[in-house]
Structure formats: structure tokens, C-alpha cells
Amino acid sequence: MDYWSSSVAVDDEFEKLVIRMNPPMVTVDNESDKKATLIKVDSANKRGSLLEVVQVLTDLNLIIKRAYISSDGEWFMDVFHVTDQNGNKLSEVDVAEHIQQSLGPRGRSFRSMRRSVGVQSELEHTTIELTGKDRPGLLSDVFAVLADLKCNVVAAEVWTHNSRMASVVYITDESNGLPIDDPERLAKIKQLLLYVLKGSRDRRSANTAVSVGSTHRERRLHQMMYADRDYDANNKNMDHAATNDRSKPLVTVENCTDKGYTLVNLRCTDRPKLLFDTVCTLTDMQYVVYHATIIADGPEANQEYYIRHMDGCPINSEAERQRLIHCLEAAIRRRTSEGIRLELCIEDRVGLLSDVTRIFRENGLSVTRAEVTTRGSQAVNVFYVTDASGYPVKNETIEAVRERIGSTVLSVKDDANSNSPPQQAGKFSLGNLFRSRSERVLYHLGLIRSYS
């Protein structure tokens, strides 16, 4: 082991020792605020502490109305004013225990946090990560290939922004429900999906990755889109949402020379998980938040951060300042869904997503965002759709799609930010499909001569 590696290992062990000696204290206060529950977190400071706490609160589906953050020095102190999804104070008595277990010294690290708050299924699966140029019908092609390769999609999340697409998909073997770990089979899955992503227009920047195990979907999606440079302001193919000035967040970055910080101010329309999205971006860009004030009591959110680089220095160039502004704007827009929200709740089966997204494609719908989950035997899926040009879909088109899939299982929701799952369930038939979905996809991409 070289000197650098041994030094890092020593630092890691020392950090673990400090945390064991100073376990985090989490208190829940339902008396101080008439409208919200106060969650106070005190712990030894370490890199990523703020993101860990915000991620736990987000995974618990809590709405953060206000937050006051201080981590200047060796100690980390936060106060969050939170409510449930309906705007009520918390009634659960084990919230503090959930958070304390996630952050405490029991070996529950940032990556394993999701299980302690019940976000991930305990089912084992193979994880597929995809990034590439977005286009109408891309999601249909991806799910068609997976279905043809005998892969069952148990969960997935898809984001699009600035003409880029990122997706995390969890699959199992169709025959036995177990993770797929055969190297040759995984290599074939990667190869075919890469063909789909690249097509004839994106041969340089498409990317696929396959691993066995879990990952925090939303955390990875932010990292993937950041690595894919979806924030690039010079992108000439900016999506419809990016050209809508009314939805543009206001971000300012300036230096406080007297205190040695960079001050970041952010103002935009409030929505669930906004704080998580911005803190993810600051962390990915290697900034440390020393102090912050978050106010989101009304329709608008105001966030103020005092940050420095990991080396303790503030931002020192105009180019870096502009880059941070663009990255924060992108982080906010990634989850801002354009289009009509469609909710599908139905008995799950192999190939369901391939069939549904094919019908979307055949009716000229483009999926801008998707959330796919499996709850017991039920598939609970949410799709945001526009027309192929990114504009609202006509009502008659939506009704035609609902009639074909089943109006009792596919519903239209007006609230684009609603987190409530669809409640209806039922059965339907989509008719016959092509014998080989992946051959059909590759044929349309011009990569094979025939799919017959």
C-alpha cells in the first residue's frame, strides 16, 4: 500500500472513531412550531453529512418547509421544519430512530441508508444504468430489448433534460426472479442496449453500466446527468422546458470576501425534493456547505448557502461561477416534469413496460420522465408524456391510449408534482407483439437488415 492510500485509510478509520465516540443525536419536537415538526440533528461533522440527513428525510417522504444548517468546525448542527405529504405534523414516533440508525455508528453507511427507511425493496436485482441522447421512442426500445432478453423490470426511474436521458433500471431473470450475474449474458445486454442508445446519432456519448446490487436511484441519476453534462448551456437542442423562461430558477453566486465564503442564493417554485436535488449537486461538485438557510413556506422556495471548496477556498473565477449556476439550474429542472402525468396500476407481468411504452410510441407520445415500481403483485407506474416535439398532448390522443390500454388502469392526473400512487387496478390485454422485440428495435435503428 502506498503512502497516499495508507493516509486515506488512516483518515477513514479516524473519522469512524470520532463518529463512534460522538454518535448523532436526533430529537423530534412537535411543540415549538404550530404547523411543522422540528427535527434536530447534532453530530460530529464529516463530508457528506448534510446530504445524508437530507436524503433520509426525503426518503421518508417528508416535506421540508424550513431548514437551518451549520457545520462550521468539527460539529454538525441542523434544524429541519417538516410535515408529511398532506402538510400535517408527524405522528410517527419512530422518525428519530429511523434517522439515528441511518446516521449512527452501526455500520449503516450512506449507501445502505435506503433500507433503514424502507425505500428499496429487499429483493436482490441487477442494476442497469443508461445515459444517452433522448429521442421519441427511446424508452420503448430499451424495454423491448430487455423483454426480448428475458429480463423482468422490477423498478426503474428515467429522467430527461436538455435532450439527454438518464435511467436506472432494476432487473431480474424472467425465469427465476433472481439477479442476472452471468458475464456473457450481461455483456449481451450491455451491447444491445448500447446499440439502442447510440442509434445513428449519438455514437460518442452513450453509456451503459451493469452491476449486481442496489443503488440509490435519484442520487445516481443526479450523478449520471452531471457526468453527462446535461447542464451545458451551449447545447443547441435544449428541451422545451429549458426554453420556458417562466420556469427558469433564479440563481446568483457571489463571494463574501470578508468571511472567505462563496454565497449562493437560489429562488424558484417550490416542489418536493428540491433541497435534496440542490444539495446533491453541491456535493457532486466538491463543495462543502458551511451554513445554509432554507425557506419554503409558500409557493416559492428560497435557499441560501455559504460554501467553499473542499480545500477551504471560495470560488475564484467567473467561469466557475457560471458553471455552478448552470449546474444548479439543471438540478432543479431535471425533476420538473413537462407533460401530462399518466398513472398505471395493474397486475404485474413480464413484458408489461415494453407493451405500454410501445403503445405510447405508436400514438406519438414521448416519455419525459418515468417512475416504475412493483408493490407485491402490482405494477405501480407513473409516466409524464408530451408529443414528439415536446408540446402538450391532445386530449383525443390521451383517450385513444387509455382506451387501448384500459381506462380503468391508466388514469390522468392534473397535479404534475403529486407523489400519490394510483389506486385503481385491473387486467387488460394488449394483443400480439412481434416475435423478437430486440430485432424489431435494431431494424428501426438501421443496425440489422431484417427482423422477420
Number of strands: 16
Q: Could you state the order of secondary-structure elements as H and E?
A: HEEHEEHHEHEEHEHEEHEEHEHEEHEH
Quick check: average pLDDT? 81
Biggest beta sheet summary: 8 strands, antiparallel
Number of helices, counting only DSSP H or I runs of 4 residues or more: 12
Query: How would you classify the helix and strand content by structural class?
Result: alpha+beta
Question: How much helix is in the residues?
Answer: 25-40%
Residue stretches low in confidence (pLDDT < 50, at least 5 long) are 106-122, 236-243, 416-437, 441-452
Radius of gyration over alpha carbons? 23 Å
Strand arrangement, largest sheet?
Answer: 1-2-4-3-11-12-10-9
Span between termini: 57 Å
Question: What's the short story on this structure?
Answer:
The chain is an alpha+beta fold and 452 residues long. It has helices at 3-21, 49-59, 95-103, 113-116, 138-148, 183-198, 217-227, 274-284, 318-334, 352-362, 395-405, 437-444; strands at 25-29, 37-44, 63-70, 75-83, 126-133, 151-161, 164-173, 207-212, 250-256, 261-269, 287-295, 300-309, 340-347, 365-375, 378-387, 410-413. It contains twelve helices and 16 strands.
